[in-house]
Automatic annotation (TrEMBL):
It comes from the Bacteria. CDD domains: RMtype1_S_EcoAO83I-TRD1-CR1_like. This is Restriction endonuclease S subunit. Residues 18-153, 185-319 form the Type I restriction modification DNA specificity domain. One of its GO terms (biological process) is DNA restriction-modification system. Belongs to the type-I restriction system S methylase family. The keyword Hydrolase applies. GO terms for molecular function: DNA binding; endonuclease activity. Keywords: DNA-binding, Endonuclease, Hydrolase, Nuclease, Restriction system. It holds the Pfam family Methylase_S.
Protein backbone atom coordinates (compact mmCIF):
# COMPACT_ATOMS: atom_id res chain seq x y z
CA UNK A 1 0.00 0.00 0.00
CA UNK A 2 1.41 3.35 -1.04
CA UNK A 3 0.08 6.82 -0.22
CA UNK A 4 -0.11 8.97 -3.34
CA UNK A 5 -0.91 12.65 -3.72
CA UNK A 6 -4.15 13.67 -5.39
CA UNK A 7 -2.30 15.11 -8.39
CA UNK A 8 -0.33 11.88 -8.91
CA UNK A 9 -3.54 9.91 -9.42
CA UNK A 10 -6.17 12.39 -10.65
CA UNK A 11 -6.24 15.18 -13.22
CA UNK A 12 -8.83 17.94 -13.47
CA UNK A 13 -9.92 17.76 -17.12
CA UNK A 14 -13.10 19.84 -16.82
CA UNK A 15 -11.94 22.35 -19.42
CA UNK A 16 -11.95 19.64 -22.11
CA UNK A 17 -15.72 19.08 -21.74
CA UNK A 18 -18.57 21.14 -23.16
CA UNK A 19 -20.82 22.78 -20.56
CA UNK A 20 -24.58 23.10 -21.01
CA UNK A 21 -26.78 25.49 -19.05
CA UNK A 22 -29.70 23.99 -17.13
CA UNK A 23 -32.27 25.90 -19.20
CA UNK A 24 -30.90 24.12 -22.29
CA UNK A 25 -31.42 20.60 -20.85
CA UNK A 26 -33.91 18.35 -22.66
CA UNK A 27 -36.08 15.95 -20.60
CA UNK A 28 -35.30 13.23 -23.16
CA UNK A 29 -32.68 12.98 -25.84
CA UNK A 30 -29.84 11.11 -27.47
CA UNK A 31 -26.95 12.17 -25.24
CA UNK A 32 -26.80 12.45 -21.40
CA UNK A 33 -25.79 15.56 -19.49
CA UNK A 34 -24.09 14.88 -16.17
CA UNK A 35 -24.21 17.58 -13.51
CA UNK A 36 -23.71 17.83 -9.73
CA UNK A 37 -27.37 17.12 -8.89
CA UNK A 38 -28.82 14.16 -7.01
CA UNK A 39 -30.08 12.50 -10.20
CA UNK A 40 -27.46 10.41 -11.95
CA UNK A 41 -28.34 12.00 -15.30
CA UNK A 42 -29.33 15.67 -15.07
CA UNK A 43 -30.83 15.97 -18.56
CA UNK A 44 -30.20 15.32 -22.24
CA UNK A 45 -29.09 16.98 -25.47
CA UNK A 46 -29.49 15.98 -29.11
CA UNK A 47 -26.45 17.99 -30.15
CA UNK A 48 -23.72 15.39 -30.72
CA UNK A 49 -21.18 18.15 -31.22
CA UNK A 50 -21.35 18.93 -27.48
CA UNK A 51 -20.42 15.38 -26.45
CA UNK A 52 -16.88 14.58 -25.32
CA UNK A 53 -15.49 11.05 -25.66
CA UNK A 54 -11.81 11.29 -24.69
CA UNK A 55 -11.78 9.00 -21.65
CA UNK A 56 -13.75 5.76 -21.22
CA UNK A 57 -13.88 5.86 -17.39
CA UNK A 58 -14.03 9.11 -15.45
CA UNK A 59 -15.24 10.54 -12.15
CA UNK A 60 -17.60 13.49 -11.72
CA UNK A 61 -17.29 15.60 -8.55
CA UNK A 62 -19.90 18.17 -7.51
CA UNK A 63 -17.91 21.19 -6.37
CA UNK A 64 -20.88 22.53 -4.38
CA UNK A 65 -22.77 19.30 -3.55
CA UNK A 66 -19.77 16.92 -3.04
CA UNK A 67 -21.70 14.31 -5.08
CA UNK A 68 -19.54 11.72 -6.86
CA UNK A 69 -20.50 9.83 -10.01
CA UNK A 70 -18.63 7.14 -11.95
CA UNK A 71 -19.12 7.56 -15.70
CA UNK A 72 -18.17 5.10 -18.46
CA UNK A 73 -19.92 6.62 -21.49
CA UNK A 74 -19.58 9.82 -23.61
CA UNK A 75 -21.12 12.90 -21.95
CA UNK A 76 -21.62 16.63 -21.84
CA UNK A 77 -21.57 18.31 -18.43
CA UNK A 78 -23.70 20.83 -16.60
CA UNK A 79 -22.47 24.41 -16.51
CA UNK A 80 -22.37 24.87 -12.75
CA UNK A 81 -19.97 23.32 -10.25
CA UNK A 82 -18.96 20.16 -12.15
CA UNK A 83 -15.43 18.79 -11.99
CA UNK A 84 -14.38 16.05 -14.44
CA UNK A 85 -11.55 13.90 -13.07
CA UNK A 86 -9.42 11.50 -15.11
CA UNK A 87 -7.53 8.71 -13.37
CA UNK A 88 -3.88 7.85 -14.08
CA UNK A 89 -4.52 4.25 -15.17
CA UNK A 90 -0.86 3.33 -14.94
CA UNK A 91 -1.13 3.71 -11.18
CA UNK A 92 -4.77 3.11 -10.28
CA UNK A 93 -8.03 1.47 -11.29
CA UNK A 94 -10.69 4.18 -11.88
CA UNK A 95 -13.44 2.35 -9.93
CA UNK A 96 -11.12 1.80 -6.99
CA UNK A 97 -10.39 5.54 -6.90
CA UNK A 98 -14.10 6.33 -7.21
CA UNK A 99 -14.95 4.21 -4.16
CA UNK A 100 -12.06 5.64 -2.20
CA UNK A 101 -13.26 9.19 -2.90
CA UNK A 102 -16.76 8.18 -1.75
CA UNK A 103 -15.27 7.10 1.58
CA UNK A 104 -13.60 10.47 2.18
CA UNK A 105 -15.33 12.86 4.62
CA UNK A 106 -14.74 16.37 3.33
CA UNK A 107 -15.19 19.58 5.30
CA UNK A 108 -18.73 20.88 4.79
CA UNK A 109 -18.52 24.41 3.40
CA UNK A 110 -22.23 24.75 2.63
CA UNK A 111 -22.79 25.75 -0.99
CA UNK A 112 -19.22 26.99 -1.21
CA UNK A 113 -16.71 25.09 -3.33
CA UNK A 114 -15.18 21.86 -2.00
CA UNK A 115 -12.67 20.86 -4.69
CA UNK A 116 -9.93 22.75 -2.81
CA UNK A 117 -10.41 20.31 0.09
CA UNK A 118 -10.49 17.25 -2.18
CA UNK A 119 -7.13 18.15 -3.74
CA UNK A 120 -5.47 17.99 -0.31
CA UNK A 121 -6.21 14.33 0.37
CA UNK A 122 -3.74 11.45 0.21
CA UNK A 123 -4.83 8.33 -1.67
CA UNK A 124 -3.87 4.80 -0.48
CA UNK A 125 -3.05 2.78 -3.60
CA UNK A 126 -2.21 -0.96 -3.56
CA UNK A 127 0.76 -1.56 -5.84
CA UNK A 128 -0.90 -4.66 -7.32
CA UNK A 129 -3.59 -3.54 -9.80
CA UNK A 130 -5.49 -6.84 -9.34
CA UNK A 131 -5.91 -6.00 -5.64
CA UNK A 132 -7.43 -2.64 -6.53
CA UNK A 133 -9.85 -4.32 -8.95
CA UNK A 134 -10.90 -6.88 -6.31
CA UNK A 135 -11.69 -4.13 -3.81
CA UNK A 136 -13.66 -2.16 -6.39
CA UNK A 137 -15.65 -5.25 -7.42
CA UNK A 138 -16.55 -6.06 -3.82
CA UNK A 139 -17.83 -2.55 -3.13
CA UNK A 140 -19.59 -2.40 -6.50
CA UNK A 141 -21.38 -5.65 -5.71
CA UNK A 142 -22.77 -4.30 -2.42
CA UNK A 143 -23.68 -0.99 -4.07
CA UNK A 144 -25.57 -2.90 -6.77
CA UNK A 145 -27.52 -4.82 -4.12
CA UNK A 146 -28.45 -1.51 -2.48
CA UNK A 147 -29.72 -0.15 -5.81
CA UNK A 148 -31.74 -3.32 -6.43
CA UNK A 149 -33.31 -3.13 -2.97
CA UNK A 150 -34.29 0.52 -3.52
CA UNK A 151 -35.82 -0.45 -6.85
CA UNK A 152 -37.79 -3.24 -5.17
CA UNK A 153 -39.21 -0.78 -2.62
CA UNK A 154 -40.19 1.62 -5.42
CA UNK A 155 -41.89 -1.25 -7.28
CA UNK A 156 -43.97 -2.05 -4.20
CA UNK A 157 -45.14 1.58 -4.09
CA UNK A 158 -46.08 1.30 -7.75
CA UNK A 159 -47.95 -1.91 -7.02
CA UNK A 160 -50.14 -0.13 -4.44
CA UNK A 161 -50.82 2.72 -6.85
CA UNK A 162 -51.69 0.34 -9.69
CA UNK A 163 -54.04 -1.64 -7.46
CA UNK A 164 -55.82 1.54 -6.33
CA UNK A 165 -56.45 2.73 -9.89
CA UNK A 166 -57.48 -0.78 -10.94
CA UNK A 167 -60.05 -0.98 -8.13
CA UNK A 168 -61.31 2.63 -7.92
CA UNK A 169 -60.20 4.31 -11.13
CA UNK A 170 -59.05 7.93 -11.38
CA UNK A 171 -60.57 9.75 -8.40
CA UNK A 172 -60.36 13.11 -10.20
CA UNK A 173 -62.38 12.04 -13.24
CA UNK A 174 -64.40 9.19 -11.65
CA UNK A 175 -63.39 6.91 -14.49
CA UNK A 176 -65.27 3.98 -12.89
CA UNK A 177 -68.54 6.01 -12.78
CA UNK A 178 -69.03 5.39 -9.07
CA UNK A 179 -71.76 7.20 -7.07
CA UNK A 180 -70.82 10.60 -5.61
CA UNK A 181 -70.90 11.98 -2.06
CA UNK A 182 -69.63 15.13 -0.34
CA UNK A 183 -66.02 14.97 0.81
CA UNK A 184 -67.00 15.40 4.48
CA UNK A 185 -69.21 12.29 4.27
CA UNK A 186 -66.02 10.27 3.83
CA UNK A 187 -63.73 12.21 6.19
CA UNK A 188 -63.88 15.50 8.06
CA UNK A 189 -60.59 17.33 8.59
CA UNK A 190 -59.77 19.45 11.62
CA UNK A 191 -56.91 21.80 12.41
CA UNK A 192 -54.12 20.41 14.61
CA UNK A 193 -52.83 21.69 17.94
CA UNK A 194 -49.93 23.92 18.93
CA UNK A 195 -47.05 22.26 20.76
CA UNK A 196 -43.93 24.48 21.05
CA UNK A 197 -40.65 22.60 21.07
CA UNK A 198 -39.79 23.76 24.61
CA UNK A 199 -42.97 22.12 25.94
CA UNK A 200 -42.31 18.71 24.41
CA UNK A 201 -41.19 15.80 26.56
CA UNK A 202 -39.81 12.86 24.65
CA UNK A 203 -42.19 9.90 24.66
CA UNK A 204 -43.93 7.27 22.51
CA UNK A 205 -46.39 9.45 20.54
CA UNK A 206 -45.42 10.84 17.11
CA UNK A 207 -45.71 14.59 16.52
CA UNK A 208 -46.72 15.39 12.94
CA UNK A 209 -45.84 18.57 11.04
CA UNK A 210 -47.20 19.32 7.57
CA UNK A 211 -45.20 16.62 5.77
CA UNK A 212 -43.95 14.04 8.27
CA UNK A 213 -43.14 13.08 11.86
CA UNK A 214 -40.78 15.67 13.35
CA UNK A 215 -40.67 14.62 17.01
CA UNK A 216 -42.11 12.36 19.73
CA UNK A 217 -44.00 13.46 22.84
CA UNK A 218 -45.21 11.80 26.06
CA UNK A 219 -48.84 12.78 25.38
CA UNK A 220 -51.24 12.66 22.43
CA UNK A 221 -54.20 14.68 21.14
CA UNK A 222 -55.82 12.22 18.72
CA UNK A 223 -56.61 8.53 19.06
CA UNK A 224 -55.50 6.37 16.16
CA UNK A 225 -55.93 5.28 13.52
CA UNK A 226 -56.01 8.52 11.57
CA UNK A 227 -54.52 10.54 8.72
CA UNK A 228 -52.62 13.82 8.81
CA UNK A 229 -51.96 16.23 5.96
CA UNK A 230 -50.44 19.69 5.64
CA UNK A 231 -52.62 22.71 6.40
CA UNK A 232 -49.97 25.33 5.60
CA UNK A 233 -46.55 25.23 4.02
CA UNK A 234 -46.26 21.73 2.56
CA UNK A 235 -49.61 20.65 1.11
CA UNK A 236 -50.44 17.31 -0.51
CA UNK A 237 -48.39 14.90 1.62
CA UNK A 238 -50.64 12.49 3.56
CA UNK A 239 -49.45 10.45 6.55
CA UNK A 240 -51.18 7.52 8.22
CA UNK A 241 -50.88 6.82 11.94
CA UNK A 242 -52.06 3.49 13.29
CA UNK A 243 -51.81 4.58 16.93
CA UNK A 244 -52.32 7.79 18.96
CA UNK A 245 -50.56 10.93 17.73
CA UNK A 246 -50.22 14.71 18.07
CA UNK A 247 -50.93 16.76 14.91
CA UNK A 248 -49.39 20.24 15.03
CA UNK A 249 -51.34 23.36 14.09
CA UNK A 250 -49.69 23.37 10.63
CA UNK A 251 -51.69 20.20 9.85
CA UNK A 252 -55.20 18.94 9.32
CA UNK A 253 -56.16 15.56 10.75
CA UNK A 254 -59.11 13.18 10.39
CA UNK A 255 -61.52 14.29 13.10
CA UNK A 256 -63.95 11.56 12.05
CA UNK A 257 -64.28 9.31 9.04
CA UNK A 258 -66.75 6.92 7.43
CA UNK A 259 -64.70 4.33 5.59
CA UNK A 260 -61.46 2.41 5.76
CA UNK A 261 -58.77 4.82 6.96
CA UNK A 262 -56.05 3.17 4.84
CA UNK A 263 -58.20 3.65 1.74
CA UNK A 264 -58.81 7.26 2.82
CA UNK A 265 -55.07 7.89 3.14
CA UNK A 266 -54.43 6.79 -0.44
CA UNK A 267 -57.56 8.50 -1.75
CA UNK A 268 -56.32 11.81 -0.34
CA UNK A 269 -52.93 11.30 -1.97
CA UNK A 270 -54.46 10.82 -5.42
CA UNK A 271 -57.08 13.56 -4.91
CA UNK A 272 -54.36 16.25 -5.17
CA UNK A 273 -55.21 18.33 -2.10
CA UNK A 274 -52.89 21.11 -3.23
CA UNK A 275 -55.66 22.18 -5.66
CA UNK A 276 -57.58 23.58 -2.70
CA UNK A 277 -54.83 25.83 -1.33
CA UNK A 278 -54.89 29.60 -1.26
CA UNK A 279 -52.76 32.42 0.16
CA UNK A 280 -50.33 34.72 -1.59
CA UNK A 281 -47.32 33.87 0.61
CA UNK A 282 -47.41 30.55 2.43
CA UNK A 283 -49.98 28.24 0.75
CA UNK A 284 -52.85 27.21 3.05
CA UNK A 285 -55.31 24.35 2.50
CA UNK A 286 -58.91 25.63 2.59
CA UNK A 287 -60.83 22.77 4.22
CA UNK A 288 -64.17 24.54 3.77
CA UNK A 289 -63.76 24.30 0.00
CA UNK A 290 -62.63 20.71 0.39
CA UNK A 291 -65.51 19.53 2.59
CA UNK A 292 -68.14 20.48 0.00
CA UNK A 293 -66.34 18.85 -2.92
CA UNK A 294 -68.02 15.90 -4.65
CA UNK A 295 -65.98 12.69 -4.51
CA UNK A 296 -66.43 9.03 -5.40
CA UNK A 297 -68.32 6.77 -3.00
CA UNK A 298 -66.27 3.58 -3.14
CA UNK A 299 -67.89 0.36 -1.81
CA UNK A 300 -66.76 -0.42 1.74
CA UNK A 301 -65.90 -4.04 0.96
CA UNK A 302 -63.64 -2.89 -1.88
CA UNK A 303 -61.99 -0.34 0.46
CA UNK A 304 -61.31 -3.14 2.94
CA UNK A 305 -59.86 -5.42 0.26
CA UNK A 306 -57.53 -2.63 -0.84
CA UNK A 307 -56.49 -1.98 2.76
CA UNK A 308 -55.66 -5.68 3.24
CA UNK A 309 -53.44 -5.57 0.17
CA UNK A 310 -51.71 -2.40 1.40
CA UNK A 311 -51.00 -3.91 4.82
CA UNK A 312 -49.42 -6.98 3.20
CA UNK A 313 -47.28 -4.84 0.91
CA UNK A 314 -46.27 -2.54 3.78
CA UNK A 315 -45.11 -5.55 5.80
CA UNK A 316 -42.91 -6.58 2.87
CA UNK A 317 -41.61 -3.00 2.67
CA UNK A 318 -40.64 -3.13 6.34
CA UNK A 319 -38.50 -6.21 5.64
CA UNK A 320 -37.05 -4.57 2.54
CA UNK A 321 -36.21 -1.36 4.38
CA UNK A 322 -34.51 -3.31 7.17
CA UNK A 323 -32.57 -5.17 4.49
CA UNK A 324 -31.65 -1.84 2.87
CA UNK A 325 -30.38 -0.46 6.18
CA UNK A 326 -28.32 -3.60 6.71
CA UNK A 327 -26.83 -3.37 3.20
CA UNK A 328 -26.00 0.32 3.65
CA UNK A 329 -24.32 -0.47 6.98
CA UNK A 330 -22.30 -3.22 5.33
CA UNK A 331 -21.27 -0.83 2.57
CA UNK A 332 -20.25 1.77 5.15
CA UNK A 333 -18.14 -0.69 7.12
CA UNK A 334 -16.50 -2.08 3.98
CA UNK A 335 -15.82 1.43 2.71
CA UNK A 336 -13.97 2.22 5.93
CA UNK A 337 -11.98 -1.00 5.87
CA UNK A 338 -11.65 -1.61 2.13
CA UNK A 339 -8.59 0.53 1.74
CA UNK A 340 -6.70 -1.69 4.14
CA UNK A 341 -5.76 -4.16 1.40
CA UNK A 342 -4.73 -6.86 3.83
CA UNK A 343 -8.24 -6.96 5.30
CA UNK A 344 -9.97 -7.47 1.97
CA UNK A 345 -7.54 -9.89 0.39
CA UNK A 346 -7.28 -12.11 3.48
CA UNK A 347 -11.08 -12.19 3.59
CA UNK A 348 -11.21 -13.27 -0.06
CA UNK A 349 -8.42 -15.83 0.38
CA UNK A 350 -10.26 -17.42 3.31
CA UNK A 351 -13.41 -17.59 1.21
CA UNK A 352 -11.58 -19.19 -1.73
CA UNK A 353 -9.94 -21.71 0.60
CA UNK A 354 -13.32 -22.58 2.11
CA UNK A 355 -14.88 -23.07 -1.32
CA UNK A 356 -12.03 -25.31 -2.45
CA UNK A 357 -12.46 -27.51 0.62
CA UNK A 358 -16.20 -27.77 -0.03
CA UNK A 359 -15.66 -28.86 -3.63
CA UNK A 360 -13.17 -31.55 -2.60
CA UNK A 361 -15.75 -33.02 -0.24
CA UNK A 362 -18.53 -33.19 -2.86
CA UNK A 363 -19.34 -36.42 -4.70
CA UNK A 364 -19.16 -36.84 -8.47
CA UNK A 365 -22.73 -35.70 -9.11
CA UNK A 366 -22.36 -32.45 -7.23
CA UNK A 367 -19.09 -31.74 -9.06
CA UNK A 368 -20.95 -32.43 -12.30
CA UNK A 369 -23.63 -29.87 -11.37
CA UNK A 370 -20.94 -27.25 -10.70
CA UNK A 371 -19.21 -27.84 -14.04
CA UNK A 372 -22.26 -27.21 -16.24
CA UNK A 373 -21.89 -24.44 -18.82
CA UNK A 374 -24.20 -21.68 -17.59
CA UNK A 375 -23.31 -19.35 -20.46
CA UNK A 376 -25.01 -21.37 -23.24
CA UNK A 377 -27.30 -19.51 -25.60
CA UNK A 378 -30.97 -19.30 -24.59
CA UNK A 379 -33.34 -21.85 -26.09
CA UNK A 380 -37.06 -22.58 -25.86
CA UNK A 381 -37.57 -24.83 -22.80
CA UNK A 382 -41.39 -25.08 -22.96
CA UNK A 383 -41.33 -28.83 -23.65
CA UNK A 384 -37.92 -29.60 -22.18
CA UNK A 385 -37.11 -31.20 -18.83
CA UNK A 386 -34.45 -29.93 -16.44
CA UNK A 387 -32.13 -32.93 -16.95
CA UNK A 388 -32.58 -32.72 -20.74
CA UNK A 389 -31.58 -29.06 -20.71
CA UNK A 390 -28.37 -29.79 -18.80
CA UNK A 391 -27.78 -33.02 -20.77
CA UNK A 392 -27.37 -35.04 -17.60
CA UNK A 393 -26.81 -38.69 -18.59
CA UNK A 394 -29.64 -41.08 -17.73
CA UNK A 395 -27.30 -43.40 -15.83
CA UNK A 396 -26.42 -40.53 -13.50
CA UNK A 397 -30.04 -39.75 -12.63
CA UNK A 398 -30.88 -43.47 -12.39
CA UNK A 399 -27.97 -44.21 -10.06
CA UNK A 400 -28.98 -41.49 -7.59
CA UNK A 401 -32.74 -41.02 -7.22
CA UNK A 402 -32.17 -37.82 -5.21
CA UNK A 403 -29.92 -36.32 -7.87
CA UNK A 404 -31.99 -33.17 -8.10
CA UNK A 405 -31.05 -32.10 -4.55
CA UNK A 406 -27.60 -31.20 -5.88
CA UNK A 407 -29.21 -28.45 -7.96
CA UNK A 408 -31.17 -26.71 -5.19
CA UNK A 409 -28.66 -23.86 -5.38
CA UNK A 410 -29.53 -23.32 -9.06
CA UNK A 411 -32.27 -20.73 -9.79
CA UNK A 412 -32.92 -22.47 -13.10
CA UNK A 413 -34.36 -25.50 -11.30
CA UNK A 414 -37.11 -23.31 -9.85
CA UNK A 415 -37.75 -21.77 -13.27
CA UNK A 416 -38.33 -25.26 -14.71
CA UNK A 417 -40.65 -26.20 -11.84
CA UNK A 418 -42.75 -23.06 -12.36
CA UNK A 419 -42.99 -23.31 -16.15
CA UNK A 420 -44.09 -26.96 -15.91
CA UNK A 421 -46.95 -26.21 -13.49
CA UNK A 422 -48.10 -22.62 -14.13
CA UNK A 423 -48.12 -22.13 -17.89
CA UNK A 424 -50.90 -19.65 -18.85
CA UNK A 425 -52.33 -19.43 -15.32
CA UNK A 426 -51.82 -16.98 -12.47
CA UNK A 427 -50.71 -18.17 -9.04
CA UNK A 428 -49.64 -17.21 -5.52
CA UNK A 429 -46.91 -18.39 -3.17
CA UNK A 430 -49.57 -20.56 -1.53
CA UNK A 431 -50.29 -22.21 -4.89
CA UNK A 432 -46.58 -22.94 -5.32
CA UNK A 433 -46.46 -24.62 -1.90
CA UNK A 434 -49.52 -26.75 -2.73
CA UNK A 435 -47.93 -27.89 -5.99
CA UNK A 436 -44.46 -28.67 -4.69
CA UNK A 437 -44.79 -29.55 -0.99
CA UNK A 438 -44.89 -33.29 -1.69
CA UNK A 439 -42.16 -33.04 -4.31
CA UNK A 440 -39.66 -31.53 -1.87
CA UNK A 441 -40.77 -33.76 1.01
CA UNK A 442 -40.51 -37.08 -0.86
CA UNK A 443 -37.83 -36.35 -3.45
CA UNK A 444 -35.51 -34.12 -1.44
CA UNK A 445 -36.27 -35.17 2.15
CA UNK A 446 -36.98 -31.57 3.11
CA UNK A 447 -39.87 -29.27 3.93
CA UNK A 448 -41.08 -26.62 1.52
CA UNK A 449 -38.62 -23.73 1.85
CA UNK A 450 -40.79 -20.59 1.97
CA UNK A 451 -37.86 -18.18 2.26
CA UNK A 452 -36.01 -19.68 -0.70
CA UNK A 453 -39.13 -19.42 -2.85
CA UNK A 454 -39.66 -15.79 -1.80
CA UNK A 455 -36.10 -15.05 -2.89
CA UNK A 456 -36.72 -16.76 -6.22
CA UNK A 457 -39.97 -14.86 -6.83
CA UNK A 458 -38.43 -11.46 -6.12
CA UNK A 459 -35.36 -12.33 -8.18
CA UNK A 460 -37.55 -13.36 -11.14
CA UNK A 461 -39.67 -10.19 -10.72
CA UNK A 462 -36.56 -7.99 -10.77
CA UNK A 463 -34.80 -9.82 -13.61
CA UNK A 464 -34.16 -7.93 -16.85
CA UNK A 465 -36.28 -8.96 -18.64
CA UNK A 466 -38.53 -10.28 -15.82
CA UNK A 467 -39.57 -13.93 -15.69
CA UNK A 468 -42.60 -13.15 -13.50
CA UNK A 469 -45.03 -10.24 -13.52
CA UNK A 470 -47.64 -9.11 -10.97
CA UNK A 471 -51.28 -8.86 -12.01
CA UNK A 472 -54.50 -7.94 -10.19
CA UNK A 473 -57.01 -10.81 -10.10
CA UNK A 474 -60.48 -9.31 -10.54
CA UNK A 475 -62.24 -12.42 -9.23
CA UNK A 476 -60.20 -12.96 -6.07
CA UNK A 477 -59.41 -9.22 -5.64
CA UNK A 478 -55.76 -9.94 -4.88
CA UNK A 479 -52.39 -9.48 -6.55
CA UNK A 480 -51.18 -12.69 -8.22
CA UNK A 481 -48.11 -13.77 -10.18
CA UNK A 482 -47.91 -14.80 -13.83
CA UNK A 483 -45.04 -16.17 -15.88
CA UNK A 484 -43.79 -14.01 -18.75
CA UNK A 485 -42.58 -15.39 -22.08
CA UNK A 486 -39.04 -15.07 -20.72
CA UNK A 487 -39.76 -17.85 -18.20
CA UNK A 488 -39.89 -20.32 -21.10
CA UNK A 489 -36.37 -19.52 -22.26
CA UNK A 490 -33.09 -20.57 -20.70
Amino acid sequence: MKLESFSAILSDCTSKYNKIKKEDYLPEGQFPIIDQGQKFIGGYTDNGGLITDIEKELIIFGDHTKILKFIDFPIAIGADGVKVLHVNKEKADPRYIYYFLKSVKLTDAGYSRHFKFLKEIKIPVPENMDDQIKIARLLNHVETLIAQRKKSIALLDELIKSAFFEMFGDVLTNSKNLPLINFEELVRLKRGYDLPKQLRTFGNYPVYASNSIIDYHNDFKVKGPGVVTGRSGTIGTVNYSKSEFWPLNTTLYSENFNGNIIYIKHFLEYFRLERFSNGAGVPTLNRNLLHNEKIIDAPKDLQNQFATLVEKVENIKIDYNLSLIELENIFGVLSQKAFNTEFILNQENDEVKKKNEEVMEQDDLEQYSKSIDLEKEKVDITNMSFDEYYEIPGEVTFKNEKWITYFLHDDLLYQFLLKDKFKDISFTLGDIEMQFHNFFYHTCDMDFDNERWKQIIFKFLEANPPLIEQIFDQDDKIIKLKLTDEAFKA
